[in-house]
Design a protein that fits this description.
By secondary structure, the chain is an alpha/beta fold. Helix content is about 45%, strand content about 15%. It folds into two domains: about 160 residues, Rossmann fold; about 100 residues, Helicase, Ruva Protein, domain 3. Strands 2-5-8-1-9 form a five-stranded parallel beta sheet. A two-stranded antiparallel ribbon has the order 3-4. Helix 9 runs parallel beside helix 12, helix 11 crosses helix 12 and helix 12 runs antiparallel to helix 14. It is globular, with a radius of gyration of 21 Å.
Protein backbone atom coordinates (compact mmCIF):
# COMPACT_ATOMS: atom_id res chain seq x y z
CA UNK A 1 0.00 0.00 0.00
CA UNK A 2 2.95 2.31 0.68
CA UNK A 3 4.26 1.74 -2.84
CA UNK A 4 0.81 2.31 -4.36
CA UNK A 5 0.32 5.54 -2.41
CA UNK A 6 3.81 6.80 -3.30
CA UNK A 7 3.34 6.02 -6.98
CA UNK A 8 -0.05 7.77 -7.19
CA UNK A 9 1.08 10.87 -5.25
CA UNK A 10 4.06 11.13 -7.62
CA UNK A 11 1.59 11.68 -10.48
CA UNK A 12 -1.30 13.51 -8.75
CA UNK A 13 -0.07 16.53 -6.78
CA UNK A 14 -1.80 18.29 -3.89
CA UNK A 15 -4.64 15.76 -3.49
CA UNK A 16 -3.32 13.52 -0.71
CA UNK A 17 -6.69 13.38 1.10
CA UNK A 18 -8.54 12.52 -2.11
CA UNK A 19 -6.00 9.79 -2.95
CA UNK A 20 -6.20 8.24 0.52
CA UNK A 21 -10.01 8.26 0.62
CA UNK A 22 -10.15 6.74 -2.88
CA UNK A 23 -7.68 3.99 -1.91
CA UNK A 24 -9.71 3.30 1.26
CA UNK A 25 -12.84 2.91 -0.88
CA UNK A 26 -11.19 0.55 -3.37
CA UNK A 27 -9.60 -1.52 -0.61
CA UNK A 28 -13.04 -1.77 1.02
CA UNK A 29 -14.57 -2.88 -2.31
CA UNK A 30 -16.74 0.23 -2.90
CA UNK A 31 -17.46 2.91 -5.48
CA UNK A 32 -16.55 6.61 -5.35
CA UNK A 33 -18.41 9.78 -6.32
CA UNK A 34 -15.87 12.56 -6.98
CA UNK A 35 -17.29 16.09 -6.71
CA UNK A 36 -15.08 18.77 -8.21
CA UNK A 37 -14.63 21.42 -10.87
CA UNK A 38 -13.10 20.55 -14.26
CA UNK A 39 -9.32 20.39 -14.50
CA UNK A 40 -8.56 19.18 -10.96
CA UNK A 41 -7.12 15.82 -12.00
CA UNK A 42 -10.11 13.49 -11.55
CA UNK A 43 -9.65 11.74 -14.92
CA UNK A 44 -5.89 11.53 -14.42
CA UNK A 45 -6.46 9.99 -10.97
CA UNK A 46 -8.58 7.19 -12.43
CA UNK A 47 -6.10 6.52 -15.25
CA UNK A 48 -3.22 6.44 -12.76
CA UNK A 49 -5.05 4.09 -10.38
CA UNK A 50 -5.86 1.76 -13.27
CA UNK A 51 -2.18 1.47 -14.18
CA UNK A 52 -0.82 1.28 -10.63
CA UNK A 53 -3.35 -1.32 -9.46
CA UNK A 54 -3.05 -3.40 -12.64
CA UNK A 55 -6.73 -3.01 -13.50
CA UNK A 56 -8.47 -2.87 -16.87
CA UNK A 57 -9.63 0.77 -16.93
CA UNK A 58 -12.18 2.46 -19.20
CA UNK A 59 -13.81 5.89 -19.35
CA UNK A 60 -17.34 6.84 -20.44
CA UNK A 61 -18.39 10.45 -20.98
CA UNK A 62 -22.01 10.64 -19.86
CA UNK A 63 -24.36 12.74 -22.03
CA UNK A 64 -28.16 13.21 -22.13
CA UNK A 65 -28.50 10.95 -25.20
CA UNK A 66 -26.44 8.08 -23.73
CA UNK A 67 -28.55 4.90 -23.62
CA UNK A 68 -28.20 1.95 -21.20
CA UNK A 69 -27.07 -0.29 -24.08
CA UNK A 70 -24.22 2.16 -24.79
CA UNK A 71 -22.59 1.24 -21.48
CA UNK A 72 -23.91 -2.28 -20.80
CA UNK A 73 -23.76 -3.69 -24.33
CA UNK A 74 -26.41 -5.25 -26.55
CA UNK A 75 -27.33 -8.39 -28.43
CA UNK A 76 -26.77 -8.33 -32.18
CA UNK A 77 -28.03 -10.72 -34.83
CA UNK A 78 -25.10 -12.78 -36.08
CA UNK A 79 -24.77 -15.38 -38.82
CA UNK A 80 -22.42 -18.36 -38.68
CA UNK A 81 -20.63 -19.83 -41.76
CA UNK A 82 -23.46 -22.34 -42.19
CA UNK A 83 -26.00 -19.54 -42.61
CA UNK A 84 -27.65 -20.10 -39.22
CA UNK A 85 -28.62 -16.90 -37.44
CA UNK A 86 -28.35 -16.34 -33.72
CA UNK A 87 -28.06 -13.50 -31.23
CA UNK A 88 -24.63 -12.67 -29.81
CA UNK A 89 -24.00 -10.40 -26.81
CA UNK A 90 -21.47 -7.64 -27.42
CA UNK A 91 -20.07 -6.27 -24.17
CA UNK A 92 -20.13 -2.52 -23.51
CA UNK A 93 -17.48 -0.44 -21.70
CA UNK A 94 -19.05 -1.42 -18.35
CA UNK A 95 -17.19 -4.75 -18.63
CA UNK A 96 -13.95 -3.55 -17.09
CA UNK A 97 -12.42 -3.47 -13.62
CA UNK A 98 -12.20 0.29 -13.10
CA UNK A 99 -14.79 2.46 -14.83
CA UNK A 100 -14.71 6.24 -14.89
CA UNK A 101 -18.26 7.55 -15.27
CA UNK A 102 -17.49 11.15 -16.23
CA UNK A 103 -20.24 13.65 -15.31
CA UNK A 104 -22.69 10.91 -14.35
CA UNK A 105 -25.46 13.46 -13.65
CA UNK A 106 -25.61 14.40 -17.36
CA UNK A 107 -27.08 11.00 -18.30
CA UNK A 108 -30.80 10.29 -18.17
CA UNK A 109 -32.27 8.57 -15.08
CA UNK A 110 -32.70 5.38 -17.13
CA UNK A 111 -28.98 5.18 -17.93
CA UNK A 112 -28.01 6.16 -14.39
CA UNK A 113 -30.21 3.37 -13.02
CA UNK A 114 -28.61 0.80 -15.34
CA UNK A 115 -25.15 1.74 -14.07
CA UNK A 116 -26.15 1.88 -10.41
CA UNK A 117 -27.85 -1.52 -10.63
CA UNK A 118 -24.65 -2.98 -12.08
CA UNK A 119 -22.66 -1.36 -9.26
CA UNK A 120 -24.90 -2.99 -6.66
CA UNK A 121 -25.32 -6.46 -8.18
CA UNK A 122 -21.95 -6.76 -10.01
CA UNK A 123 -23.83 -8.17 -13.02
CA UNK A 124 -26.11 -7.00 -15.83
CA UNK A 125 -29.23 -8.51 -17.38
CA UNK A 126 -29.71 -8.43 -21.17
CA UNK A 127 -32.63 -10.20 -22.89
CA UNK A 128 -33.30 -12.25 -19.77
CA UNK A 129 -29.71 -13.49 -19.39
CA UNK A 130 -27.31 -12.41 -16.64
CA UNK A 131 -23.72 -11.47 -17.47
CA UNK A 132 -21.25 -11.27 -14.58
CA UNK A 133 -18.94 -8.25 -14.42
CA UNK A 134 -15.18 -8.71 -13.96
CA UNK A 135 -13.73 -8.82 -10.46
CA UNK A 136 -12.79 -6.52 -8.92
CA UNK A 137 -15.26 -3.96 -10.25
CA UNK A 138 -15.14 -0.33 -9.15
CA UNK A 139 -16.83 2.79 -10.47
CA UNK A 140 -15.31 6.23 -9.97
CA UNK A 141 -18.01 8.70 -11.03
CA UNK A 142 -17.54 12.46 -11.30
CA UNK A 143 -19.88 15.42 -10.93
CA UNK A 144 -19.44 19.14 -11.51
CA UNK A 145 -20.78 20.92 -8.38
CA UNK A 146 -21.65 24.19 -10.15
CA UNK A 147 -22.91 23.66 -13.70
CA UNK A 148 -26.30 21.99 -13.21
CA UNK A 149 -28.01 23.09 -16.45
CA UNK A 150 -29.16 20.10 -18.48
CA UNK A 151 -28.34 17.59 -15.74
CA UNK A 152 -30.33 14.88 -13.97
CA UNK A 153 -29.31 14.95 -10.27
CA UNK A 154 -28.86 11.53 -8.72
CA UNK A 155 -31.74 10.63 -6.35
CA UNK A 156 -30.77 10.08 -2.72
CA UNK A 157 -31.55 6.36 -2.91
CA UNK A 158 -29.06 6.02 -5.76
CA UNK A 159 -26.43 8.18 -4.09
CA UNK A 160 -26.50 5.68 -1.24
CA UNK A 161 -24.92 3.11 -3.59
CA UNK A 162 -21.67 5.09 -3.52
CA UNK A 163 -19.31 4.16 -0.70
CA UNK A 164 -17.96 7.72 -0.40
CA UNK A 165 -18.59 11.18 -1.76
CA UNK A 166 -15.19 12.85 -2.07
CA UNK A 167 -14.82 16.60 -2.59
CA UNK A 168 -11.90 17.51 -4.85
CA UNK A 169 -10.58 21.00 -4.04
CA UNK A 170 -8.04 23.27 -5.72
CA UNK A 171 -4.38 22.35 -5.00
CA UNK A 172 -2.28 24.65 -2.85
CA UNK A 173 0.39 26.93 -4.35
CA UNK A 174 3.31 24.48 -4.02
CA UNK A 175 1.28 21.62 -5.49
CA UNK A 176 0.20 23.77 -8.42
CA UNK A 177 3.85 24.71 -8.99
CA UNK A 178 4.74 21.00 -9.07
CA UNK A 179 1.92 20.39 -11.56
CA UNK A 180 3.27 23.08 -13.89
CA UNK A 181 6.82 21.74 -13.74
CA UNK A 182 5.86 18.08 -14.21
CA UNK A 183 3.17 18.26 -16.91
CA UNK A 184 4.43 20.90 -19.34
CA UNK A 185 7.75 19.33 -20.27
CA UNK A 186 8.90 16.25 -22.17
CA UNK A 187 9.94 14.64 -18.88
CA UNK A 188 6.44 13.95 -17.53
CA UNK A 189 6.44 10.95 -15.20
CA UNK A 190 4.35 7.95 -16.21
CA UNK A 191 2.89 5.64 -13.54
CA UNK A 192 4.09 2.05 -13.22
CA UNK A 193 2.19 -1.03 -12.15
CA UNK A 194 2.62 -1.97 -8.49
CA UNK A 195 0.14 -4.82 -8.01
CA UNK A 196 -2.25 -7.03 -9.96
CA UNK A 197 -6.02 -7.46 -9.86
CA UNK A 198 -5.54 -10.79 -8.03
CA UNK A 199 -3.39 -9.12 -5.37
CA UNK A 200 -5.98 -6.37 -4.93
CA UNK A 201 -8.72 -8.99 -4.42
CA UNK A 202 -6.52 -10.71 -1.82
CA UNK A 203 -6.03 -7.37 -0.05
CA UNK A 204 -9.79 -6.77 -0.03
CA UNK A 205 -10.31 -10.20 1.56
CA UNK A 206 -7.64 -9.38 4.15
CA UNK A 207 -9.38 -6.11 5.09
CA UNK A 208 -12.57 -8.01 5.97
CA UNK A 209 -10.66 -9.99 8.62
CA UNK A 210 -9.36 -6.94 10.52
CA UNK A 211 -10.86 -6.99 14.05
CA UNK A 212 -12.89 -4.00 15.31
CA UNK A 213 -13.04 -3.30 19.05
CA UNK A 214 -16.32 -2.95 20.93
CA UNK A 215 -15.66 0.75 21.66
CA UNK A 216 -15.15 1.54 17.95
CA UNK A 217 -18.25 -0.47 17.01
CA UNK A 218 -20.30 1.52 19.55
CA UNK A 219 -18.86 4.79 18.17
CA UNK A 220 -20.10 3.86 14.67
CA UNK A 221 -23.56 3.00 15.98
CA UNK A 222 -23.72 6.25 17.98
CA UNK A 223 -22.56 8.35 15.01
CA UNK A 224 -25.09 6.87 12.57
CA UNK A 225 -28.07 6.69 14.93
CA UNK A 226 -27.50 10.24 16.20
CA UNK A 227 -27.74 11.36 12.56
CA UNK A 228 -31.36 10.18 12.32
CA UNK A 229 -34.09 12.59 13.50
CA UNK A 230 -36.07 9.66 14.94
CA UNK A 231 -33.33 8.39 17.28
CA UNK A 232 -31.08 11.43 17.90
CA UNK A 233 -30.49 13.36 21.11
CA UNK A 234 -29.04 16.33 19.21
CA UNK A 235 -31.33 19.34 18.82
CA UNK A 236 -29.58 20.41 15.58
CA UNK A 237 -30.41 17.06 13.94
CA UNK A 238 -34.03 17.11 15.10
CA UNK A 239 -34.52 20.65 13.76
CA UNK A 240 -32.58 20.51 10.49
CA UNK A 241 -32.32 16.93 9.14
CA UNK A 242 -35.13 15.42 7.04
CA UNK A 243 -33.67 11.92 6.94
CA UNK A 244 -30.46 10.44 8.20
CA UNK A 245 -28.02 7.68 7.24
CA UNK A 246 -29.28 4.11 7.00
CA UNK A 247 -27.58 0.80 7.81
CA UNK A 248 -25.54 1.00 4.59
CA UNK A 249 -23.69 3.95 6.17
CA UNK A 250 -22.80 1.78 9.18
CA UNK A 251 -21.56 -0.97 6.87
CA UNK A 252 -19.47 1.52 4.90
CA UNK A 253 -17.91 2.89 8.09
CA UNK A 254 -17.04 -0.62 9.32
CA UNK A 255 -15.36 -1.52 6.03
CA UNK A 256 -13.76 1.90 5.60
CA UNK A 257 -12.09 2.07 9.01
CA UNK A 258 -10.67 -1.43 8.49
CA UNK A 259 -9.16 -0.37 5.16
CA UNK A 260 -7.80 2.87 6.63
CA UNK A 261 -6.16 0.97 9.49
CA UNK A 262 -4.42 -1.33 6.99
CA UNK A 263 -3.22 1.65 4.93
CA UNK A 264 -1.80 3.24 8.09
CA UNK A 265 -0.10 -0.04 9.13
CA UNK A 266 -2.29 -0.68 12.19
CA UNK A 267 -3.71 -4.03 13.27
CA UNK A 268 -7.12 -2.62 14.17
CA UNK A 269 -9.00 0.66 13.62
CA UNK A 270 -9.56 3.38 16.21
CA UNK A 271 -12.18 6.06 16.81
CA UNK A 272 -9.88 8.47 14.95
CA UNK A 273 -10.57 6.43 11.80
CA UNK A 274 -14.32 6.83 12.35
CA UNK A 275 -13.87 10.60 12.75
CA UNK A 276 -11.70 10.82 9.60
CA UNK A 277 -14.24 8.97 7.41
CA UNK A 278 -17.44 10.38 8.91
CA UNK A 279 -17.87 13.27 6.44
CA UNK A 280 -17.21 11.48 3.10
CA UNK A 281 -19.36 8.50 4.12
CA UNK A 282 -22.28 10.39 5.70
CA UNK A 283 -22.75 13.61 3.73
CA UNK A 284 -24.47 12.04 0.69
CA UNK A 285 -26.64 9.88 2.96
CA UNK A 286 -28.30 12.78 4.79
CA UNK A 287 -30.66 15.57 3.70
CA UNK A 288 -31.39 18.97 5.24
CA UNK A 289 -34.84 20.51 5.41
CA UNK A 290 -35.83 23.90 3.99
CA UNK A 291 -35.43 25.64 7.35
CA UNK A 292 -31.78 24.55 7.56
CA UNK A 293 -31.05 25.88 4.08
CA UNK A 294 -32.80 29.16 4.93
CA UNK A 295 -30.68 29.54 8.07
CA UNK A 296 -27.46 28.72 6.20
CA UNK A 297 -26.91 25.45 8.06
CA UNK A 298 -24.70 22.98 6.16
CA UNK A 299 -24.29 19.23 6.42
CA UNK A 300 -20.67 19.81 7.42
CA UNK A 301 -21.89 21.58 10.58
CA UNK A 302 -24.33 18.77 11.37
CA UNK A 303 -21.63 16.11 10.88
CA UNK A 304 -19.26 18.12 13.10
CA UNK A 305 -21.92 17.99 15.86
CA UNK A 306 -22.21 14.21 15.37
CA UNK A 307 -18.45 13.76 15.64
CA UNK A 308 -18.44 15.56 18.99
CA UNK A 309 -20.71 12.78 20.32
CA UNK A 310 -18.09 10.09 19.74
CA UNK A 311 -14.84 11.90 20.47
CA UNK A 312 -13.20 10.55 23.66
Amino acid sequence: MDQIHTEVTGIIFGQDRVIEETLVTILAGGHVLLIGLPGLGKTRLVETLGTVLGLDEKRVQFTPDLMPSDIIGAEILDEDPGGKRHFRFVQGPLFCQLLMADEINRASPRTQSALLQAMQEKRVSVAGHYHELPRPFHVLATQNPLEQEGTYPLPEAQLDRFFMEINVAYPDRQAERDILLSTTTNNSKTPKRICSAAELLAAQELVRTVPVSESVLEAILTLVREGRPETTTLDSVKRHVVWGPGPRASQALMSGIRARAVIHKRLSPSIDDVVALAAPILRHRMALNFAARAEGISLSQIIADLIQKIKP
